[in-house]
Each structure stands twice: as structure tokens, then as C-alpha cells.
């Protein structure tokens, strides 16, 4: 069990790190690429088109709780919220990388 146990622990640790990075990094990069930034929606972006469509559909404003509002909120999360998201991704990655119970 010595070598196998060490390998499983290493696999879980790698999966945990990857999970944390993916949870925070990938989401923020994707939102930024769409035009959702921490300082607002970028002009002439996919986010701007989404916002325009949502505003037209709602009579001139973007409804609270709409997809556009949620994505903008996620893009502008505080450092603390990003750390919490990273921990959640780390926990999920460790769980997914752990060996099946026998």
C-alpha cells in the first residue's frame, strides 16, 4: 500500500491544485474575453450586445438577477470571493482526484 497510497495522495494534490486554478482562472478569463470586466462591460463586446438585448427586452434596463447581471457580478468579485471560489475548486479537484472507496 506504500507506493500506491503515495501515488494516490499525489494525484489528489495535483487534482486539487488544478481544480482551484480552473475554478478561478478559467472563469475570469472567459468572462473577460466576453467583455465582462471588473470595471464594467467593455464597449463593442459580446457582453455589450448581451446587455443591449437584455435592456431592450426589459424596457430599457437590465433586470437584477438576469444572466447579464450575474456574469457582471462574477467578473467584479472581490479578492476574498475569488479565494473562496479557489478553495471550492480545490476541494472539488481533490475529491475528483481521490481514489474510489472500496
Structural commentary:
This protein is mainly α and 102 residues long. Helix content is 72%, strand content 4%. The chain is built from four helices and two strands, in the order αββααα. The protein has a two-stranded antiparallel sheet with strand order 1-2. β1 and β2 form a beta hairpin. The mean pLDDT is 80.
Can I get a quick summary?
72% of the residues lie in helices and 4% in strands. It has 102 residues and is mainly alpha-helical.
How are the SSEs ordered, and which strands pair?
Blueprint: H1 2-34, E1 36-37, E2 40-41, H2 46-57, H3 67-75, H4 79-97
Antiparallel strand pairs: 1-2
Strand order of the largest sheet: 1-2
Number of E strands: 2
**Overall SS class:** mainly alpha
Mean residue pLDDT: 80
The H-and-E topology, N to C, reads as HEEHHH
Specify the overall morphology: elongated
How is the biggest beta sheet arranged?
2 strands, antiparallel
Strand % is under 5%
Portion of residues in helices?
over 70%
- Give the uncertain stretches in residue-range form: none
Q: Helix count?
A: 4
Instruction: Please state the CA-atom Rg, rounded to the nearest Å.
Output: 19 Å
C-alpha end-to-end distance = 14 Å
